[in-house]
Batch of 2 targets.
Target 1
Amino acid sequence: MIAKKFKIPKKHIALILQKGESFDSKLFVIRFWENKVSFPRFRIIVSTKFAKKAVDRNKTRRRIYEALRLIVKENSNLRPLDIILIPKKQILTKEFKEISQIAEETITKL
């Protein structure tokens, strides 16, 4: 799991979803907004539309957070953004390596 300081507070999520910029990648829809802290913060939103079983939603969320943790650990020069990732259904069939690789490419593009 990613450290708590790297998670977006719940009260900021609605603002980012409304006013944030949008970016579409192969496995994610991303909404992002500049933040006032010196490091990037993340939040994953996985709805019941994505997968009916909570097991699948939680597994997806854990895999993405782990990929993000590794990205933050390796890259110290990431822009200070609040980033909300909304996974697409194709992510359920992907291996962790592929998820991690696509997440890193996407996050570093922002």
Target 2
Amino acid sequence: MAGKKILMMMTGSIAAYKACHMISRLVQAGHQVQVAASPSALQFVGNATLEGLSGRPVVSDLWERERAMDHIHLIREADLILVAPGTAHFINRIAGGIGDDLLTTLFLAHDFKKPFLIAPAMNTTMYLHPVTQASLKKIKDMGLRILETASGVLACGETGFGKLLDPDLILQEVLEALGTEPATTARPVTTASSLSPIKVLITSGGTKEPLDDVRVLTNSSTGRSGAELSNQLSDLGFDVTLLRAKEAVIPTSADVVQKTYVTHSDLKELLQTEIQKGSYSHVIHMAAVSDYQVDKVLLDGQETKASKVPSGRQMTIQMKPAEKILPLLKTWTTQPLKVAAFKLTSHASSEERRQAMSKLFPAADVVISNDLSEISEGKHPYLAKTSAAETPLAGLSELSAWFSNWILNKETL
């Protein structure tokens, strides 16, 4: 069945970030998603993320120049409208027939000839308030589909009803309403079955090269960025496996498959095994891999293989160049494989950064650069380079949106 046009309306709830997962999965399934977001929703999820996932400009202002009739066209062109999350503020306003901003005006332009689904998300007391319940009943009686809420711990710390329904269950409702998924009373919580997630392999953290059984040579990589990127891409619906250094930051998403390594050789073996058996379409190689391995350890000029090198003596470490892993990745599979590499520089000029990035092609399809001089607490910018363009990215959220866009083979962020 050909892809459908879906109008995704987002209101200002802490659950707004979960809409990103739904947008990503719907786009992966071949549907066109147009996002209409309230200004408060954009305080939780930025324009860049939503545009990167949907491939379309976000609409949010009823009075934007040359877009005065968007509320008519957007509703008429859509095959289905989904409000997720739907706040008490939005629900009570549309029940009262108020249309003084883009989202409420979109509702008033609805002709009830196509599915209109609302997934509420709010505090338990607000959800159970007689006014909210009356509003939900009123718009349900009009013919709108009101999805159930989940129960659990809410953002306010309370436990109860009002939590946004699991995004995969919302997707299931959308697919059924579109006629692309048969109706079912048993709804699995895992994934919407018609959406096959794309498999992405990520590496993170730094390798360690042993001097003896106790001492190692390593680097300062914590793996935090790799863990966060794994969380965000997993939340966006991708099937993520993370190969992380044993002591690197652990992702919080339960859906991320994790495997650990210690040395350069460990990581190389893990990567080769995963790529050969894993059916991955994309590898994001973020790990800080040692350029050198220990060749010999000399004490007072004599080679030693002691399990613990004694202190107090003159020690000389001879290093040998380590095999470059990046050029090997595509050789380990006969299937198409896209590779993203990372290049960290230190106080480099713009031209020096570009030269360093260029050296990683053609082993990589995209290179992400960052420089130590630009990294500080709460600030971590990146520069993404493909053969066609360079894109500055303000932080991890924009990086994950950019990667989602790249993985889905779109041309613009």
